[in-house]
Known about the structure:
The complex is a heterodimer of chains A (510) and B (517). The mean pLDDT of chain A is 86. Chain A has a two-stranded antiparallel ribbon. Chain A is built from 21 helices and 2 strands. Chain A is mainly alpha-helical and 510 residues long. Chain B has helices at 11-33, 36-60, 77-98, 119-125, 134-150, 154-172, 179-211, 223-232, 237-255, 263-270, 273-298, 303-326, 331-351, 354-381, 398-401, 403-416, 423-437, 441-467, 482-500, 503-512; strands at residues 66-68, 73-75, 382-384, 387-388, 476-477. In chain B, 72% of the residues lie in helices and 3% in strands. The chains are: A mainly alpha (510), B mainly alpha (517). Chain A binds chain B through residues 69-73, 141-142, 145-146, 148-149, 153, 156-157, 163-164, 167-168, 171-172, 175-176, 179-180, 182-183, 186-187, 189-190, and chain B through 414, 417-421, 425-426, 428-429, 432-433, 436-437, 441, 444-445, 448-449, 451-452, 455-456, 459-460, 463, 466-468, 501-503, 506-507, 510.
Amino acid sequence: MSNFPFLSVLTVAPLVGALVVAFLPRHRPELAKQVAFAWSLLVLVLSVVMWVSFNAGGDRFQFRESYSWIPNWGVSFTFAADGIALVMLMLIAVLVPLVILASWHDAESSKRSVPVYFALLLVLECTMIGVFAAADVFLFYVFFEVMLVPMYFLIGSYGGHQRQYAAVKFFLYSLVGGLFMLAAVIGLWVVGGKTFDWQALSQVDISTGTERWLFLGFFLAFAIKAPFFPFHTWLPDAGGAAPAGAAALLVGVLDKVGTFGILRYCLPLFPEASKWFAPWALALGVIGIVYAALLAVGQNDLKRLVSYTSIAHFGFIGVGIFAFTTQAGTGAVLYMLNHGLATGLLFLVVGMLISRRGSALISDFGGAGKLVPVLAGVLFFAGLASLALPGTAPFISEFLVLIGTFTVNKPVAVIATVGIILAAAYVLWMVQRTTQGTLNPALTEVDGMRRDLNLREKAVVAPLIALIVLLGFYPKPVTDVINPAVQATMDDIGRTDPAPSVGTVQEAGR
Amino acid sequence: MTELKLPSLNYAALAPIMIMLGVALLGVLVEAFVPRRLRHVVQLTLALLAVLAALTMVVLNADDRIITAGQALAVDGPTLFLQGAILVLAAMALLLIGDRSVERGGAFVAQAAVTAESADDRRQAEGRNGLTEVYPLTTFAIGGMLIFVAANDLLTMFIALEVFSLPLYLLCALARRRRLLSQEAAMKYFLLGAYASAFFLFGVALIYGFTAGIPGRGAGVDFATINAAVTESPASPVLLFAGMALLAIGLLFKAAAAPFHVWTPDVYQGAPTPVTGFMAACTKVAAFGALLRVFHVAFAGAAWDFTPVLGAVAVLTMLVGAVLAVTQTDIKRLLAYSSIANAGYLLVGVLAPGREGLSGTMFYLVAYGFSVLAAFAVITLVRDEDGEATHLSRWAGLGRRSPFFAGLFTFILLAFAGIPLTSGFTSKFAVFGPALDGGHAWLVIAGVLTSMVLAFPYLRVVVMMWLSEPGESTPRVTVPGGLTSAALMIGVLATLVLGVAPAPLLDLATGAADFVR
């Protein structure tokens, strides 16, 4: 373990980059893009170094740093990362440069300042890293809320159709959740003896009634953020209106804050309440899986379709978390990573299709594979990853969630399995209607549809495809990091895995 | 006949008040003897110097914890903190009042007696220099506020109330443009204010009656006597409750709490914008300073009785402010309702027990004052040939026209919405934390729920400015001169600093959070 202050540097670095980019002259957009890209690569390099120096078998929280901030309220800049946070930080560091690369020309169509767009992306990276790196509840809350501001402007200023409505809806939904959490944060601060330090708070005994209310405050915020059914209605609007790059970050990373928050804050801080509410949370997860998948089948807008698939996937993650077994928990965390990769890829590819066609409607496509075969192939791959085909990374996580859940709660696992079938339906039907079949004659008249993937776009999709395949066959480096953290979380709520009764169900993927 | 004993006066402790009132009188003389063309500069300089001198005295007195002037004035931690706050915010407001670069001749009417909407009126609106009487009026008001937060008996408090209210009524009527609106605002404010004063005075009388008959003490309206009477008086508690209620009405009127808030939107809209800013910042500090002292010192023993009632008022205030803010189409009225909702949050702080509640409320007052003055400073800048363009639809696309000022205003709105890293968030935490600690969870939940509602109107303005396309009628943003710029930047910087590093001011507020009883 190194003593380098990784987490604070990682948090601050993108912000500095954002300031640099924002103050670049408006008429030099190329320079702004290059600086932003270089900066995000720098963050990526730093994150890789951090990943390497993380000791998987060591302490639960590593890279801990603490600086006093508001001593009157016991607030400090405390950063620390466990395995779960580390994986998410890595995901951010990988996705942001790819998103910047993929969004190279996105901002130009909006008549607005191009440097500001990339500066906002970097600000968003800063807040996302901060929210996963924080080990102080107050600090977490600060990042949780501030995160809304850059995303709001990304959607509202650079988005597509109905962007104002979507931006405001996104902001208000998240703010409502955030304010419920604020009440719970203050409550936790009062019962926890006026401290915000996560480790101190996790030792506090809270009376049952209070604990349930506080849990609800946090859970509501996270359920809106994730989003779980029935708090999901903002996501299709936001995902549909956001520029593709921002949408990839929105569902790929931002929404993981919700599930991460449940794992880091709800479960360890309120273990009794978590167990008490678990059946409800499981029910929400299962409903989300089926309901969102059904809605996804019926979508005619590509970005909205991908958004609905994400809601279904978040249902899986929620089920994995609240099954309270190490397998399901590991599966859920792995799902958070894989979903970020797979859906991120899907969003970016869909964005490439949409920018070529100038329309997001599935009915405007048809037989596109004949014009842009490589792009169609990548879309197909991204779709397969999204439906968790064996051999792609999401399969492992989905499988882990299902068998982990099956050992303790068979009905939930069985219903959730329906989600897999529906996933095949919405993905394959979408792929069929867009890229297969007879060529839609209107497509040949659109200039963009004659250009297949260029080098920049190949550079965007290649790393993601490689990672999805690699982690599909060899997830060990990631599970090694996740497992101890999930184990510790399960210990926090005092659940042990049921002993396998018949046969030997080994932990798959280990 | 007994010899009249003169009370001893601690002149150093009273210096801030005496400086402000003295300079106000001097300002009247300036009006009489200084040539017209010099008056503006002389008056503004005098007023600013007076505020600076008074502030210096407050800082020098920082460790005073005394009651002087025969029990009439308490110069203790909260007094000094709030006096300092009033003076700093008043200095910012004076900068806005003194600005003549944004509008030729300033924001004030040149001749208040000219019939509104007449030909003469139009001529005076076209650039004749505004009245300079506004400076002595403002200094009087500041002086009154300084007494108001220091008053240690109800009669002194009443006199201070009148000293700072009367100049404000006048100032409201002096807008250069839309004079009918301005005069209507002043009339409403004056009439309702007069009623509120009468309620207050009646309350004082009832309390005086209540204090009669405590063994070993004469009747009186100083806070120590009232405090003793609350537990020891043989009189019927009905007197106490009625008196408390009437006093509260008078004070809550000034604080713009529901259901005594109805004047606020009209007055905020009609008054000249710098005066609106002055009222929104300084009057709030003064009113809540007095509320804190009355309820924490005089009626501390009756906390069980007044907490549910004031709590209900707080919830109602938050609800009314937040819900009605949603429907507003005029930016000044929107900020008026927002200020009502903020009065509700401040009342939550007033009800939070102990030092932390007190220091949190004082912190909130300062933080809110800075933000709201900066907000009104921006409003003075957005204008067309008819003056300020306050209708919300006119703000569409402003972010495109002048990204810098729209950015500043967006930041202030985010602060009002309570986004972290702004003072709006830290100050909400400063009052909600102690309130929850004191067992008022219902107030905190009401505060959080109304914050959600209130976020919508703020966000709507942000959407208007940034996400809408600029229209034909989108007004220009005037590039302000030094005075308004200074006020604006101070306000924005304070909003940022108090959000990022609130610890120093919190320390100061905590150190000051002890009343001398």
